[in-house]
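Sync notes, pocket subgroup
Present: LS, DG
LS reminded everyone that the earlier model was apo-only. Rerun requested with coenzyme A included. Inputs:
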Amino acid sequence: MRLRAIERDDLPLAVQYLNDPDVLTYFGQLAPFSLQDEEEWYERMRHDNNVVNFAIEVDGRYVGGCGLINLDHVHRRAEIGIFVGDKTYWGRGIGSEAMRLVIDYGFDYLNLHRIYLRVFAENARAIHVYEGLGFQHEGRFRDAEWRHGRWLDMLYMSVLEPEWRLRSADKGVADDG
Ligand SMILES: CC(C)(COP(=O)(O)OP(=O)(O)OC[C@H]1O[C@@H](n2cnc3c(N)ncnc32)[C@H](O)[C@@H]1OP(=O)(O)O)[C@@H](O)C(=O)NCCC(=O)NCCS
């Protein structure tokens, strides 16, 4: 697995992923999403200094995206987001590894202090990944979004740079031992 820049050639697959109801259950916008929408997003994203997005590539195939948005260089914080759009790749550790690399990037190269995220309270798989990476629960916005004909709560989670460094150091020791 590697992270790389999103290329224009990735966009048709991205559109396929972002129209898949299983991918969208707890992610993105539930509205028809065209190639033109994706191309417009791509152009906006390329010129937005407050966003860093990566393509997730496995065995040469573009399978999803992971990145930082709402970058704030004064308060040294950003929001992280991820989707593995090709469902056949779920459960193989790719989401966790992509998140780990983007968090390292945020702390090591963007000098961030805090990386936070929002996740629907029902998105058990994603929450499991985030907890496994050391994200702390910060709060619950009740009835935050109307989706699937009902209100869903939204959880807020974050990891701070010192916590991340401590975990990475501990993990290094555990891996060595
Ligand atoms: C959430 C997502 C990024 C996870 O990616 P992934 O590559 O499947 O994640 P991983 O394989 O690294 O880890 C999945 C973990 O969830 C666990 N898991 C799977 N289903 C689960 C469930 N229903 N409840 C709890 N844990 C679950 C797996 O056992 C695995 O944990 P483990 O490594 O301890 O065994 C991916 O499923 C996805 O893109 N979903 C759709 C978009 C989305 O919801 N994005 C997040 C929005 S906040």
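DG: The beta strands are 2-4, 52-58, 61-72, 77-84, 114-120, 136-147, 150-160.
LS: Residues 2-176 form a domain with the Aminopeptidase fold (CATH 3.40.630.30).
Action: DG to write up.
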